[in-house]
Design brief:
Elements (H helix, E strand, L loop, with lengths): L9 H7 L1 E6 L5 E8 L5 E7 L2 E9 L5 E7 L2 E9 L5 E7 L2 E9 L5 E7 L2 E9 L6 E7 L2 E9 L3 E8 L2 E10 L3 E11 L14 E12 L33
Antiparallel strand pairs: 1-2, 2-3, 3-4, 4-5, 5-6, 6-7, 7-8, 8-9, 9-10, 10-11, 11-12, 12-13, 13-14, 14-15, 15-16
Amino acid sequence: MSDVGSEEFEDERSKLGEYEGDRNEAGERHGVGKAVLPNGDTYEGQYENSKRHGQGTYRFKNGARYVGDYYQNMKHGQGTFYYPDGSKYEGLWVEDLRHGHGVYTYPNGDTYDGEWLHHMRHGQGIYHYHDTGSKYKGSWVNGNMESAGEYIHSNHRYQGNFANNNPYGPGKYVFDIGCEQHGEYQQNEQDQADGEWGALASTTVLKWIPKCITGLTPWTPAKEAPGELYLQGKASANQKRGSEPPLF
């Protein structure tokens, strides 16, 4: 039923916006309906006892759009969010947060396919860099590359531990020609970061210390808990939704 011409729902319209659709015996929005909120956003989909509940599409006036499951007014379940900057998240939600498995496509074409926790990359995941074709495959903690992982390029890869988005400690380069270079990454403080792996922080560069060259050997990811490799004082801004981890 529509609010138009209904004095009974006049007060509701002023607070919650205009609504056209089903209602229950108590007069609550219930079933399928369409609402225009006072701020200009719109919602079209299922309701239960006046709350968005079930399948629906929410359009924000800034151009963003969410299509998927709702539970008690919150994004919850499977859904796709289209952001105004052109990025997109498709995956699981828990109480309005990206949580569980999902795929995020960034404005520059990069993608992250993996686990999320409380809106951040967390768990196992693969980050693919669109421009170069390189990718990181491994563990994430609070939005950052952390613990065991591998950085895969077109003709070689690096396998080792990571801390706060940087390779750290023992690791190895594996080359497609059939050999490996074993060594260790150390972090050194300098006035400017311009080392092999790019600008990582205002005063930090990475130094690769080679140890030996061997044939191909099995790689067993380290067993350290993710937090054990975190470098204090190097907190990264990459925890935010729209930020991409550095390309090494």
